[in-house]
Amino acid sequence: MQIKQHLLDKRVVKRALQEGLLDKAAYQRTLDELPDLAHRVQTAPPAPAEEPPAPAAAPPAAIPPHEAAPSGNTSASF
Fold this sequence. Notes:
Blueprint: H1 10-18, H2 24-33
């Protein structure tokens, strides 16, 4: 049985080997014939140096004091 190459992945190959649909020696030859593409792998750029944490935001502006109590009796009577 010929399996289309674009349908192959490790799970499909493993299942085909277990079911006897794929010859292990032929599969190994195919793997050996694959070109080494390690030179095409891009390495990740170096991580940027850690920057110091940003300063904390300024506290909110102070609430203005209440206006002076109205003139007259300032004691509370209930």
